[in-house]
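An instance follows:
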Amino acid sequence: MQKLNIVLLGSAHPLRGGLATYNERLAKALQDAGHEVMIYSFSLQYPSFLFPGKSQFSSDTAPQDLKIVTKVNSINPLNWISVGNELKKLKPDLIIVKFWLPFMGPCFGTILRRAKKNRHTKVISILDNIIPHEKRFGDTAFTKYFVKPVDAFISMSSSVKDDLKKFNTTKPSVLQPHPLYDNFGEKVSKEIALKKLNLSPDFSYILFFGFIRKYKGLDLLLDAMNDERIKNLPLKLIIAGEFYEDSKPYLEQIEKLNLKERVVLATDFILNEKVKYYFS
C-alpha cells in the first residue's frame, strides 16, 4: 500500500467533544495503517454565540502519539489564507476534513482552495451534516462554498448522502455509517458501572447521552417517561451530557410530570474515562 502524507483539518485536543474524539481516533487508525498524519486544529473554533456550553476545552491529557498543530481561527479570513498557504507548501497527498456546520464553510473552503493551488493535494470530506439541524442565515451559500474544492465525500448517514445531492451531483460520494468508538476503555460489569455512577441496582436505566440541544428530542423522551405503560415500572432515565441551551424548560418539564425521582441528572461534560461506565 502506498504511504500517504495526510492532513486532518478540524477539531482535536485541547478541544473536546465528539468531533475531536473522531479526528484523533481517525488519525491513529491512519497512522497504524502506515501513513504520515498530522491534525490542523483550531486556535478558535466557535465564537461565543455558537457555543452555549461551559467550556470548549478538555481536561484530559493530550494524546502522546499524534501531531496536532493548533492554528486555525474559524472567524479570521487572514488566518484562513495563511493556513491555506502553509498547507500548499506542505503539499500533503490528502486533506481529510469533517464537515458538520455551514458556519465552517468560509473557513474550510478558503483553506482548501489555497492548499489545492499546489496542484497535488486531494480533498475528502467526511459529512456529519450537509444541511444543519438548526438553520441560520447564509447556510446554503456557506455550504456551496465549502463543497466546491472538495474532491470526494463520505456521508455518515443515508439522509446526509441524499442531502448532498442538493449541492453535488458529479463528485464521488459514498455512504459509510459512523463507526463505533473503541477508545473509551473496555466494557465493565453492570455491577461495577452502577457502583461507579452511584446508581441503585434495583432499577433498569434508559440512557440519553451527549450534548443537549432542542433537535435531539429530550422533551419527547421526558414525555414518554410519563406514559402510563411504563411510569410504574422500576425504570429510570439517565440524562448524561451538558446543556447547550437553557436548561429551565427541561427542569420545569421534569417537575411538571413528577419525574424528579425517576430522572438522574448528570448534566456536566462527561469525561472520556467515565464514558465506559454509562455504556456498560
